[in-house]
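can u pls check wat happens w/ 5-amino-5-deoxy-1-O-phosphono-D-mannitol
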Amino acid sequence: TKEGYPHFMIKEIHESPKAVKDTIEGFISEIDLIKEVADEIKNANRIIVIGAGTSYHAGLYFSLQLQRLGYTSIPIIASEYYNLKAKKGDIALAISQSGETIDVLQGIRKMKNEGAKIISLTNVIESAIARESDYKLYMKAGPEIGVAATKTFTTQLASLLFLTEVLQGGNINKLEKLHQEIRDTITKVEGITKRIGEKLSKKANIYYLGRGLSLPLAMEGALKIKEIAYVHAEAYPAGESKHGPISLVEKGFPVVIINDGELTDLLQNNLMEMKARGAEIYTVSVNKKMKDSDIEIYLESEFPAIVISPVIQLIAYYASVSKGYDPDKPRNLAKTVTVE
Ligand code: M6R
């Protein structure tokens, strides 16, 4: 049941703190398995990360992090799996909420045949993808009814951050406070995300810009608002926007900038370029503020992605409901995609 919430989507966004808490506790109790997985990653020739939709965005986030740490990691969109030939010595990480997405399943079957080992991260015990994996990791987000992935995305990010900490020999205990940060963020941004969502719902097109690790989050923000509010949104690496996309920008064109605090100065340049053409600027910043945005959401966290995640979801949610749509049942979409 919706337990007093108007939609499953908003209920599930509010369940994110618990989902993350349960997942982190689950990972701590399975620390031997996580360490084994980390060793496999360390010893692999290449780490291929595969997923679809939102799960692909979580995978891209992780893959970029691995690349930064010096690993050879290749992110692939599940439905494009045929472009990659795996080899013995490779490891593939399959990310899927349902654990049933057919393209992910086909992708891991192919890579397994080619000699790769498979790790899965799913939200359903003994899901099809888990059953075909050498190592099964689980998020503990509980059932997600809304078609839009919300708490499961935040939980995927938390799981992958945990794995990154273990890979680096970092301190996993600091992840235990993540759920509190998510709860505080949701309380803090509910009103402002509603305002932004209402404004964006009136637009025909939106750019979501990010750089570095905030790019996958920009991609997720754009997917979410497209999916449930039917507003065309495109995510771009902010620097790449100069190579074509900026020609669309004119007075009132909305640009959402996701700033995780790492590349703020460069993003600020992009903001100014957009602003000079009359763009309406919305920024979601963590740890470092930006200047000259029309509306800024500012947060602080050691794990920027985790707090940005509910913000972009809430913006999409409010854009959808302000247009009178049911965000739980977007047209043309199924919760689980089992056809190729
Ligand atoms: O169950 P999965 O994580 O494999 O699903 C993948 C995508 O179908 C899914 O994330 C989809 O993009 C969501 N509806 C996005 O909100």
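The pocket of 5-amino-5-deoxy-1-O-phosphono-D-mannitol is lined by residues 52-55, 96-98, 101, 104, 147-149, 227, 336-337 (CB under 6 Å).
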